[in-house]
Design a protein that fits this description.
2 domains; elongated; Rossmann fold
Length: 335
């Protein structure tokens, strides 16, 4: 009889990983089913405070708390993490009567949180708890207790915080998203709070990078091409918009138009005779990525687009309110 072949270390590792992920996935499903009116009351409480959400927790719960505070702050809910040990040595001063406290402890018996709990009770600061210990001191003293369902940790000893911290992290995300939706948090607000990084760059709008006023190269339809060339050269965009007496854009003159008419006594011609009618335009509130796409993906590639107000989109000859160059998009990190 042949002995069964021992599993390789990589196979065992994959089994462990899949077991852990399955346990944590099941824990999140149990958490979703366990949510009740306390969650909505927590959202209402946070929305009702004029100050910040002060988040605190010890150990692994504290690490989750730091991430939770950062997520809240970046999605429109002012928040700050305070370490419970530091709170007992002066950082209770971060709390004000306008704030709410969000404390996390799996057991609900974390001694280091006791000073914060006592302080919030004396100061009348709303206290929201996230804990598995429904009968714990933290849950009992909290105004609102979000109780995690009783599921075991994923580690073989059942001790290392794994499923419990995963549930805390997910619950924090759920709070942040619920608050975002209740506040009507917009892409523009998100961009203001995320000016760096790829997310912020993707949300840059044309209105934020366009050139306006006297920077826009514009000429009249009957302007001689000598005047047009001066305008194109002085404004450094390599093009000029042709506008009628009402200020409406009826055409554009680009380097390509100049080359096409070079052999036909160009300087004796007018802007109307040389221009390309119905130029491609972009609305002011469009994302910079849309402007870049219009410039690079059209059959005839462009380096500039004239910008029009949203309410003028679709009109035969809207009035230009700006111009955006491909270099403006690249400088803003849009690619």
């Amino acid at each position: 009889m042949t002995k069964p072949q021992a599993q390789s270390a990589p196979d065992v590792d994959l089994q462990v990983a899949r077991r852990v992920l399955a346990l944590e996935s099941e824990a999140l499903s149990e958490l979703a089913k366990s949510l009740d009116g306390a969650f909505a009351r927590a959202v209402d409480t946070i929305l009702g405070v004029e100050g910040r959400v002060i988040v605190s927790g010890m150990g692994k719960s504290g690490h989750i708390g730091g991430k939770m505070a950062a997520t809240l702050a970046s999605t429109g809910t002012p928040a700050q993490f305070v370490h419970p040990g530091e709170a007992s040595h002066g950082d209770l001063g971060f709390f004000t009567a306008k704030d709410a406290a969000l404390l996390m402890s799996n057991s609900g018996k974390t001694q280091e949180l006791s000073d914060i709990i006592a302080f919030t009770r004396r100061a009348g600061i709303p206290l929201i708890a996230i804990t598995s210990g429904g009968d714990s001191a933290l849950a009992q003293h909290a105004d609102i207790a979000l109780i995690l369902p009783p599921v075991g940790e994923a580690c073989p000893m059942g001790m290392a915080p794994t499923t419990s911290t995963t549930m805390m992290l997910a619950l924090g995300d759920a709070l942040a998203v619920a608050l975002m939706e209740r506040r009507g948090f917009t892409e523009d607000q998100y961009r203001v709070l995320h000016p760096g990084g790829s997310l912020g760059k993707r949300l840059v709008r044309v209105v934020d990078i366009m050139h306006t006023g006297t920077e826009i190269p514009l000429v009249a339809p009957e302007a001689h091409m000598s005047e047009v060339l001066v305008e194109m050269t002085s404004k450094h965009f390599g093009c000029a918009g042709v506008v009628d007496p009402t200020g409406s854009l009826i055409g554009v003159i680009t380097d390509g138009d100049l080359r096409r008419h070079m052999q036909n006594e160009l300087l004796k011609r007018t802007a109307r005779e040389v221009m390309t009618p119905r130029p491609t335009m972009v609305r002011a509130t469009a994302l910079g990525g849309e402007a870049l796409r219009l410039m690079t993906e059209s059959p005839v590639r462009k380096t500039c687009l004239f910008v029009v107000a949203d309410e003028d989109v679709g009109k035969p000859a809207p009035k230009p309110i700006g111009i955006v160059h491909i270099h403006d998009c690249l400088r803003a990190g849009i690619a």
